[in-house]
Design a protein that fits this description.
With 224 residues, this protein is of the alpha+beta class. It has one domain: NADH Oxidase. Helices cover 35% and strands 10% of the residues. It is built from six helices and five strands.
């Protein structure tokens, strides 16, 4: 565990600027930084503290090329038509949405070039509605840790469109399932604010559809 210096971004700035960084340099990432990301992952909440998570760190070019080929196919055959037919995501302008699609297309073409992947997995039975609660908190911790270390990353699950093929390429045993794929590397672009719609679009009070009145109040100033 390292001490934060006064010039490092605070946790809220990190959360508000942890964008999906899909354009990554192929430059090697030091093992010490990957270890810090993994250590952040295993501090996360998980059901009963059973720690059934397992994390596969992938650097082998052949493994990456095999999985990336299925990823690219899933992007072209499934994701692209769906995104092209839909409207921009909430809080996103058409121009920003098109930039996101271009970046996602770049990732599909260059996924295998990302120097490191982390594939978060869970041991146990087939995934259910609740099992993700024991792995996705760790995923978010790792994304935040990567951002704090100046590394780009993104959460994607497109490889699961070809789950059997990609998990076989990753060598997963039958009782282990992958829940995401995190390509990690130094970003080509800059970190910046995430694009989200206002809280009022998502938050209710007491009963579904009832506006949360306290959202009209300004947040308190940071402690001085």
């Amino acid at each position: 565990m390292t001490e934060a210096s006064s010039d490092e971004p605070g946790i809220f700035e990190i959360m508000h600027t942890t964008r999906s960084m899909r354009r990554l340099k192929p430059d090697p990432v030091p093992n010490a930084l990957i270890r810090q990301i993994l250590e952040a992952g295993v501090t996360a909440a998980n059901g009963g503290n059973m720690q059934r998570w397992r994390f596969l760190v992938v650097k082998d070019p052949k493994v990456k090329e095999t999985v990336a080929a299925y990823y690219k196919r899933a992007w072209k055959e499934d994701a692209v038509p769906r995104y092209r037919a839909g409207a921009p995501s909430p809080g996103t302008s058409p121009e920003r949405f098109q930039r996101m699609l271009a970046a996602a297309d770049y990732l599909a073409e260059h996924l295998h070039e990302a120097p490191v992947w982390i594939v978060p997995c869970l041991e146990g039975a087939a995934p259910t509605r609740s099992t993700g609660s024991s792995i996705y908190p760790a995923v978010q911790n790792m994304l935040l840790a990567a951002r704090a270390l100046g590394l780009g990353a993104t959460l994607t699950t497109l490889h699961l469109r070809f789950e059997k093929e990609t998990e076989a390429a990753l060598g997963l045993p039958p009782d282990v399932h992958s829940y995401a794929l995190l390509p990690i590397g130094y970003p080509m672009g800059r970190f910046g604010p995430v694009g989200r719609a206002p809280l009022a679009d998502f938050v209710y009070e007491n009963r579904w559809g009832e506006p949360y009145r306290d959202l009209s109040q300004s947040p308190p100033p940071p402690p001085g």
